[in-house]
């Protein structure tokens, strides 16, 4: 069975979802998540795409990106291939690491962009200990949005989304925090 073609975004923005193959977690340890973010940074330099937000869970990951003048298929083909090689070497595993190819959903409106950022940042609420404090989850960009930690990997563009929440950084952060609390999914 062949894969159908990807829907092309008119804005260049996509919600990208990666999922593990059913037999294991995509990210077994924190170091695996760090490795994936380092690979993302490497390919961001190579392909010059913008990353607006992300969340890496144990068996999947969400990303909100703008491919700029690159190609989403090539970006994530390369990131996922390198990460899969890393997993095979680290865990002496073989076979597919990802469930199918990654999924990319075009983001064509500002309202969907905002809704999606909140959805991605609320993902850690699925973990019991982060149910009431998703900003404490280390492998999400939410804490950077709320100015609770620096963007360690220097891969985020938070201004694109925060500009919808206020004219000053302080106002935007407060309004984004409020939106997160209102939109618990």
Automatic annotation (TrEMBL):
InterPro entries referenced in this protein's UniProt entry, alphabetically: Transposase_17, Transposase_17_sf
Domain of life: Bacteria
GO biological process assignments: DNA transposition
Domain Transposase IS200-like per the UniProt entry, residue ranges: 9-123
SUPFAM superfamilies given in the database record: Transposase IS200-like
GO-annotated molecular function: DNA binding; transposase activity
Gene3D superfamilies the UniProt entry points to: Transposase IS200-like
UniProt name for this protein: Transposase IS200-like domain-containing protein
Native source organism of the sequence: Clostridium senegalense
């Amino acid at each position: 069975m062949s894969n159908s073609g990807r829907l092309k975004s008119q804005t260049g923005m996509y919600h990208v979802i990666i999922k593990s193959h059913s037999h294991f977690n995509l990210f077994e340890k924190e170091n695996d998540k760090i490795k994936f973010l380092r690979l993302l940074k490497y390919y961001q330099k190579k392909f010059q795409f913008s990353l607006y937000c992300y969340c890496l869970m144990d068996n999947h990951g969400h990303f909100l990106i703008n491919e700029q003048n690159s190609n989403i298929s090539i970006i994530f083909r390369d990131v996922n291939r390198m990460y899969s090689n890393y997993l095979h070497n680290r865990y002496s595993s073989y076979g597919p690491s990802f469930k199918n190819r990654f999924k990319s959903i075009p983001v064509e409106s500002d309202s969907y962009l905002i809704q999606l950022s909140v959805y991605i940042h609320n993902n850690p609420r699925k973990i019991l200990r982060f149910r009431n404090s998703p900003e404490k989850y280390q492998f999400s960009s939410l804490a950077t949005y709320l100015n609770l930690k620096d963007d360690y990997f220097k891969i985020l563009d938070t201004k694109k989304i925060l500009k919808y929440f206020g004219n000053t950084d302080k106002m935007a952060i407060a309004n984004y925090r409020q939106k997160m609390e209102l939109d618990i999914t």
